[in-house]
Amino acid sequence: MRSVLSRQEPAPPEETMGEPRARGRFGEYGGRYAPESLVEACREVEEAFRQAWADPGFRNTLADLLAVHAGRPTPLTPARRLSQALGVRLYLKREDLTHTGSHKINNVLGQALLATRMGRRRLIAETGAGQHGVATATAAALLGLRATVFMGERDMERQALNVFRMRMLGAEVVPVTAGSRTLKDATSEAMRHWVGVTGEAHYCVGSVVGPDPYPWMVREFQRVIGDEARAQFAAEVRTGVPDHVVACVGGGSNAAGTFAGFADTAARLFGVEAEGGAGAGRGRLGVLHGCRSLFLQDDDGQITEAHSIAAGLDYPGVGPEHAHLRDLGRARYVTVGDEEAIGAAVRLARTEGIVPALESAHALAWVIRAAGSGELAAGSTVLMTLSGRGDKDVSTLKELL
Questions:
Q1: Among 13-22, 73-82, 288-297, which stretch is predicted with the lowest mean pLDDT?
Q2: Would you state the CATH architecture of domain 73-102+222-400?
Q3: pTM, to two decimals
Q4: CB-based contacts of 167: which residues, under 8 Å, 6+ apart?
Q5: Which of the residues 95, 126, 220, 228 is marked catalytic?
Q6: Which stretches of sequence are listed as region Disordered (predicted)?
Q7: Which is catalytic among the residues 188, 308, 380, 387?
Q8: Is 46 an active-site residue?
Q9: Is 104 a catalytic residue?
Q10: 126 catalytic per annotation
């Protein structure tokens, strides 16, 4: 009887935002659903990452790169005029002030350093908004690596400035003409290309998606956002921890990094998705790009196209750890539409002198809405990650305003 009861005992509680369980699982999500030729490559990446992450020398080198090249720590900026208008105390974690203009550089410097440790001389990447592609091209130039970036043809048109930046930095930008010609198709093409060059190239995934260990590894490289923000907020505000932590979610890398700094606190966590790309809000269980998570699908289980004015949110799913956080009730996922995000971008520009990326404007739009509806209590504190600057979106906004 005792042995039967023992077998039926539930698994021990999972540490929230700790190391994933066996086979890279976050609850029922995650895993390594990849072709046999990539399974071995993923094992090599996992082994290399585990060794590197336990090596103080690797961590110190990365910390130096983040400080002297990326410009960390980034500031925590009180949004004073907007806070007064909204009735909440809003603080912005300024990832837009990093070198290359977005949080993407944190993860890419980590993966590029890992690639050199593995003896790889080339980086492969996919990009939607172009910020991950620019960061990859930048890290490759810095460390003397070759870079090949896959990008949907539609995204290349609306992010032409970032395409030019990547090419100026020496990267090869490969147009992807299949499907919706956006991030989903660029990711598929990058993974197909990696199959044939695993011995020489490292696939530098840009978000907390893909086969194990990528969702975990990318979150750990982005954890610097949440750790810095927590220390900065404690120094700035007597309460020590914000009441609410908010970040936009496409695949979810900046949100995962931010949430990781506050997962063990009483702060309420909010991920803001685009209405047309709400994997956590409207997705169903499925497998795409090597992992099991929540994806937008039709009645036949086929992945459907996502839509957002923000290219970085134009992805039909969400990273597996976000799906798990949703199930646990530890984070709540909400949606914002294009017009609301545009309005928020303009409002931040005219009250605080900051032009945000349209991805970040989605998070701000929800803060504005929730403060107005009373969902965010008057006087409560809100920390929002401003994941990137809006230079790349100026031409889009110019056409619409």
A1: 13-22
A2: 3-Layer(aba) Sandwich (3.40)
A3: 0.94
A4: 173
A5: 126
A6: 1-26
A7: 387
A8: no
A9: yes
A10: yes
